[in-house]
Design goal:
Elements: E1 11-13, E2 16-18, H1 27-45, H2 56-64, E3 68-69, H3 70-76, H4 81-93, E4 97-101, E5 109-113, H5 115-135, H6 141-163
Helix pairs in contact: 2-5, 3-4
Organism: Jiella mangrovi
InterPro entries: HTH_MarR-typ (IPR000835), WH-like_DNA-bd_sf (IPR036388), WH_DNA-bd_sf (IPR036390)
Domain HTH marR-type: 24-156
């Protein structure tokens, strides 16, 4: 558990939290630590759901934008297309997605959720809302909104930095 009082104790060694030194004062370090802890907590709750919890963001994008080509999906989740192909293959093997020829461009396939994929996304999103409630316990609605806006700005800065 991360200490939210800001006394710089995050890593664990021999049962005691130890400081990451100067990294404690960086947003990148805190974001990465929070991501690791949140990801692990969410996946552990849903270990019986296969690989789907790991790729909830991708599955939710496919649900919201069915039929998108792999290249657009890779861009949306900030992955290289080659990495996404492997993930889509795994999700296809689990029966959660399917590739269909694009109506606009016969050279590409669109990605769609199967019925099982739709059901899985609904189930995982419900669990994600419960997980978010745990993550934000003790934060006011205004603090949650401020955090979301700050994260959106950081994501936009990073995306802009990649493009420029």
């Amino acid at each position: 558990m991360t200490d939210l009082q800001g006394n710089g104790q995050d890593a664990v060694l021999e049962g005691r939290r130890i400081s990451a030194g100067d990294a404690e004062a960086t947003i990148a370090y805190k974001l990465r630590l929070a991501q690791i802890l949140a990801f692990r907590s969410f996946e552990e709750r849903l270990a019986d759901r296969g690989r789907a919890p790991r790729y909830l963001g991708l599955l939710a994008i496919i649900q919201s934008h069915p039929g998108q080509p792999q290249s657009r999906l890779a861009e949306a989740v900030a992955l290289r297309r080659s990495s996404l192909v492997t993930i889509l293959d795994l999700l296809g093997e689990e029966g959660l997605i399917e590739r269909r020829p694009s109506a606009e461009d016969r050279r590409t396939n669109g990605i769609w959720l199967t019925q099982a994929g739709e059901a899985m996304v609904a189930e995982l999103l419900a669990e994600s809302r419960r997980h978010d409630a745990m993550l934000t316990d003790g934060l006011s609605p205004a603090e949650i909104e401020t955090t979301l806006r700050a994260l959106d700005r950081m994501i936009a800065n990073l995306r802009d930095g990649e493009a420029g």
